[in-house]
Amino acid sequence: MKYNFHLSKLNRSTIYLLLLGVGIGLLTTVQWKTKPPRATNSPVNSYISLVDTKRSLASEQNDLKSEIAQKQNEINDKQKLLKEYTASKNEIIELENYKSRVGLTEIKGQGVAIKIDDSKDNQTTVDSIAHAADLRDLVNFLWSIGAQAISINDERIVYNTSIDCIINTVLINNTKTTVPFSIKVIGDSKIIISQLDNPNNLKDIKKRVKNDGLVFEVTSSKDINIGAYKGNFVIEQAKILEN
Asked: By Cβ atoms counted within 10 A, which residue in 41, 77, 110, 184 is the most buried?
């Protein structure tokens, strides 16, 4: 009898363990077949959201620039009519001069075209790529030698233009732009080229051109066309400039 009791107890234990094993197996199978919920806070989704936001903002910025350009054209047309039918022609001419000085009108003339780009041959280093600081140095130098108008990748450079860097992107007038940088300059091409060729000027850029392959090319041109500034001005700052 003791033997039978022990055997019965052993059989019950075996059955319990078997049922437990089957239960665990079923749970594992269900979990394996069930798709995990979408991770709403995953880095991938955050990145996609940022990309979508960037595209939306870029599209909105382009639309606003087009609207500004359209309004500027309408203003120019009305000013032409005023110039024809008003006795205050001198005031209209003075207004046009102010607009030209602050970059609100298209300008054409002789000058130079400059290209700045990352090295195409050397290994990428901090010295072989073009930086926002290079553009700032170049623009300041060009103003100092008599440039009348400047644009970078078709962004008109005016008195309140900012040239900043965010990682590998350069912002000009808050517009994203990347290499190659095409700089248009209106002014006396002979003077500009002579000053750019002077080894004592822009030493850091020229050193990196020689040692690190930075691209810096200058071409004279009799037909430089620089478009009007398409951003917005602070009225108070514009009044200061007029004075």
From this structure: 184
